[in-house]
Amino acid sequence: MRLTTIKLAGFKSFVDPTTLHLPTNMTGVVGPNGCGKSNIIDAIRWVMGESAASRLRGDSLTDVIFSGSSARKPVGQATVELIFDNSDGTIQGEYATYAEISVKRLVSRDGQSSYYLNGARCRRRDITDLFLGTGLGPRSYSIIEQGMISQIIEAAPEELRMHLEEAAGISKYKERRKETESR
Ligand code: ATP
Ligand code: MG
């Protein structure tokens, strides 16, 4: 599975609709300080369901919406869409047969978030379920930020175990068991 395209509009500094193509397995993003490189990572975490504003470097969830600049007025909503190439079948279940999977999130000023999977409205839960066990996800190890290496090295055993279980692909089954047991 590979992330091939990121589409942003109204998200942080990406006020105008912007499409980023990631044509190969390695893509570098370069630019001066404050140009929006980290905002792209925030966007990826955000679509996959991150719900803690602090993890997106903001105070409230609507802080991801473009808040205006000296030249531009604020906008009313933010959207980000990720397109994954799933031709290797990493994503299993209902979406296994789709060669391309699109995941989208929209938030408006009233704080309402909506999620879409291949264009159809879905729950946040459907998105997190989709990525569970793939190593992707809002807090998974596939996004390594500054400071995270030492965080993993210094992690408590329980936290380390969580990462190992995700890598081994068993977190999905544990989550389902927990769900069944709580019914
Ligand atoms: P560095 O090289 O210093 O890490 P960077 O390229 O990672 O920089 P970012 O942190 O991605 O930069 O971008 C910061 C910029 O995004 C700032 O100019 C900030 O004003 C802008 N920004 C963040 N949130 C919003 C928002 N909601 N509305 C408008 N602009 C925003
Ligand atoms: Mg940065």
Automatic annotation (TrEMBL):
Positions that bind ATP: P32, N33, G34, C35, G36, K37, S38, N39
Compartments, as annotated in UniProt: Cytoplasm
Protein function: Required for chromosome condensation and partitioning.
Quaternary state and interactors: Homodimer.
Domain topic, free-text comment: Contains large globular domains required for ATP hydrolysis at each terminus and a third globular domain forming a flexible hinge near the middle of the molecule. These domains are separated by coiled-coil structures.
Family per record: Belongs to the SMC family.
Record protein name field: Chromosome partition protein Smc
Part of the whole protein covered: 1 to 183 of 1166
